[in-house]
Amino acid sequence: MTRFVCSFGGASERDAEPPGRATDTGSGADGPGIADADRAADLGGKGASLARLARAGLPVPPGYVVTTAAFAEAMTAVDPSGALRASVEALPPGDVRAIARAAVRFRARITAAPLPGGVASVIAASYRDLGGGPGAAVAVRSSATMEDSAAASFAGLQDTYLGVYGADAVLDAVRRCWASLYNDESVAYRRRLGMGEHDLAMAVVVQRMVHPRAAGVIFTRSPVTGDRSVVAIEGTWGLGSALVAGDVTPDSFTVSKVTGEITGRRVAGKLRMHAPGGVCPMPAHLQHAPCLSDGEIRALARLACRVEDHYGAPQDIEWALLGDDVTGIQDSPCAPCAPESPNTSSAPAGTKAPADASAPADASAPADAPAPAADRIVLLQSRPETVWAAREPAPVASPKPRACDHVLALFGKTP
Amino acid sequence: MEQGRFPLPSEIADVPGAENWRSMYAYFTRFTPEDDKRFWFYNSMHFPEPMPAFDTVTAEIPYSAIGANTARLFVFPTTLGIEHRIVNGRVYITANPVTDPAEIGRRAEIFGERAGHYYENWDSLYEGWKGRMAELIRQIEAVTVPELPEFEDASVVMESRGVAQNHYVRENFQRCITLFSKMWHHHTEMLMLGYGAYVVFFQFCKQAFPEISDQTVARMVAGIDVIMYRPDDELRRLARAAVDNGVDDLFTQGCVAAEVLTALRDRGEGGARWLEEFAAARDPWFLISTGDGFYHHHLSWEDDLTVPFTALPRYVAQVREGTLRDRPTGELQAERERIADGYRSLLGSDEERAAFGQMLGLCRRVFPFVEDHKFYCEHWFTTRFFQKIRAFGALLARSGVLAEADDVFQLHHTEVDQALADVMLAWAAGSPPLGGAHFQPVVAERKRMLKVLRDWSPPPALGPVPEALNDPAVHMLWGVTQQTIESWLSPPESGVVRGIGASSGVVEGTARVLTDVNQIGEIADGEILVCPVTAPSWAPVFGKIKAAVSDIGGSMSHAAIVAREYGMPAVVGTGDATKRITTGQRVRVDGDRGTVEVLE
């Protein structure tokens, strides 16, 4: 194959192989032992994270990353001499109108230009290898190479397409992701920072689309107190994008890593839900129902600890729980507020989701007798925790000559 | 109560119908106008009911001992002792803090030397303590109540002893009081330091792991082979003995102790062998109180066999099924180590891990005392103490001063002294004592007042709210924190009873409210027990219930520890669960958050 694609999560051999095996299909993807930073340069942050989780045997929905090499190849086709990019670099940061004109021209070039043959064929072949038939739905999401917090807002400008069907639609969505680098805001941002246009890179994740029963975020270190001994789980019914977008107050649960006990539990009134069809009111019977059972909470916590152990540092993890559709909503009721139903969407465009934390997952859970909780969880991303890592508090105590000196010190302390 | 402040002591009105409550209590327990300037709180943990006059000895003597220990013996730097007051039958307390830095420094020097001596020599000092306590128990058991015969035994004259029996009426009664006082001095001798070690470890855990639950800290420390489990273990042993000796058919649900014991006497050798085992178990293991040793009516198993004979049929059934398990001490031990190792490994540095090890090690060194002293003091000794006082009550009843023996507990111990003097004089003079006319109306009025006072809802605290409550020693002595006070000041939520989450888990079920341990037979399988205090003697029914809720108790209380071992949710220290929940209601017990929700 080529260096343009890296598969992960089992891909087409998923039925025959346990999920979670990354399959490198080109030199752009590398085996174990390659530093994460290098992988992120090829696969983007999200893509590198998914590939690494899959390689560690952790459950991720199968998919593949269209590498930064593919992007570079495409950009060479669009702008062989580099003149177009040089002209963007020359734009004055304050000239909003000029930036908008250049951006729109650039986007048009990217979306209109045929993809270089090698890139297009490998993307389409990988889509077929994902299985699920010629009309299998996937999510297509950009995977930026700059994941630090300064670039977060910049990264956030990039696109996610859910419910994309067919190889042509996938190719189109990939181009749109690339084009999102040339949104007016993105270009303006780069100009303000004086960033070079020739070093731009972007990977794109294509992943089997599924409908989670519930989804959310796990912090393997309490975001509130920095406590390293607890796993904090937030979740809601339906897609996790509702959390990230702030459309819902999630249920939250705290689990002790040491005892496995659920030590905190707050079931929120969840009024809105994100379904693949869009945003809709939460069905009444789910509003005050916890989105996870105790068994599911514990299974999520255990899995989160495995992820943390794998990385050797606290993580922020996006998760989804597969299972029966309890919402009764995926087929139609939220159509009025849905921008576009995935069932009717055809090439070239999928549904644009509110944020990139949407939850493609595998909806293949049996309708009756659900599988054990642990088998129904998929992970969508894992990022190192940064907030508490940056303000590690001083040690709480140091050893003293005698054990009882601790008591004498505490009780003799002047208030 | 107005939002944001507690009533002043002087603002508390007498409960109508019990205006004469002051007559029951010593003058030094009354609020003075000066007391309005200080913060007081209701000690519902130890004194959840209005105090019968005699039972105030369980406040007077412990506070005399605790204060002596912290203020004078060990010289805790930041605190003197505790003062207590009684209003409308309820005990309020306040601690006297030391705030002058120079004074704290002066005290700290003495404290360091003295406390250091105890901590450093803890194990051998505890061995010595056990010996002293055993001696005190022997002495209280040896106290006799004189018979006051028509003629003294000849030996008094022939051996020229010269002292008549009526002298020993007072001497022996006073001996009970002074032995009780000595017991309490020994009780506090090591306890305050024991708690101190725990407070230090607790604070460390809370700082290093802000979201760790109180119960998890407790689990790292709790002893496995603890004497308080012995009574329950003895019941299991007796259940096996019943099966082994072929008398297990007598132990059926709802069986009555007296009938079973009578029937056993007709069951030949097997019955005799079981009764032998029973006799061996009773002393001392049945001297466990159904309360915490602060009220005369919290009887022991020995005084009332209802609790053990409610538990025995279930254990017997389990022996037959082969499902009766001993406490899995090996597993519990491994679990305790696993939890401690888990937290140790999560600490940020080797330095912290070393400090953690020191504090945990110290805690585990002192904890056998912290856990076991209760059996010696509040159960074994105190059961014997109340039995002796009841025996003096019987003397007063025989002499016509009181209508019945238990009425002695309606008299302050100084009044009992007076009543006994009356009996001594009457025996000597050859005339009837005069106390009947004096004391019997007093007793009747007090019993009536206590009933009235029982319905009064005491404010959780009185006086101005302290600005900051951050001294660990004061926390330790008071058992309340700034948060507790804030929750008292916020209006109660309807339908939610709040307490301390003592054992993890959430269950729903039907409530069974028991105000008296003697109703224990009413509990049906799978119910949620709601009771004033879950003392260790209730443990045998824990296998039957789904969750436990109590008015009184903390996360280190025995009930909490047992609930954790049964893996059963428990919420303790709710203050008023038995008043706000009624039998038959569906409730949800959340042992993580410490809440009980009334669902219907």
Model description:
The complex is a heterodimer of chains A (415) and B (600). Chain A is α+β, with helices and mostly antiparallel strands. Chain A has two domains: 5-208, ATP-grasp fold, A domain (Dna Ligase, domain 1, 2-Layer Sandwich); 214-391, 2-Layer Sandwich (D-amino Acid Aminotransferase, Chain A, domain 1). Chain A is 31% helix and 19% strand. Chain A is built from twelve helices and 14 strands. Chain A has helices at 36-55, 68-78, 83-89, 96-112, 117-129, 152-156, 167-180, 184-193, 241-244, 284-287, 294-311, 405-411, and strands at residues 5-8, 63-66, 137-144, 160-165, 202-208, 214-219, 230-237, 251-256, 262-266, 272-275, 278-281, 315-321, 351-352, 377-384. In chain A, the strands form three sheets. Chain A has a six-stranded antiparallel sheet, sandwiched between helices. A six-stranded antiparallel sheet of chain A has the order 9-8-7-6-12-14. In chain A, β10 (272-275) and β11 form a beta hairpin. In chain A, α4 (96-112) runs antiparallel to α7 and α5 packs across α7. Chain A is globular, with a radius of gyration of 23 Å. Mean pLDDT of chain A is 78; it is low at 11-34 and 329-368. In chain B, β2 (79-87) and β3 (90-97) form a beta hairpin. The two termini of chain B are 27 Å apart. In chain B, α1 (57-73) crosses α5, α5 runs antiparallel to α13 (413-429) and α7 packs across α10 (306-321). The longest helix of chain B has 49 residues, at 350-398. Chain B is 51% helix and 10% strand. Chain B is built from 18 helices and twelve strands. Chain B has an eight-stranded mixed sheet with strand order 5-12-11-7-8-9-10-6. In chain B, strands 2-3-1-4 form a four-stranded antiparallel sheet. Among the domains of chain B are: 9-112 and 456-482, no CATH class; 122-191 and 366-453; 493-598, Glucose Oxidase, domain 1 (3-Layer(bba) Sandwich). Chain B is α+β, with helices and mostly antiparallel strands. At the A-B interface, β9 and α12 of A face α2, α5, α11 and α12 of B.
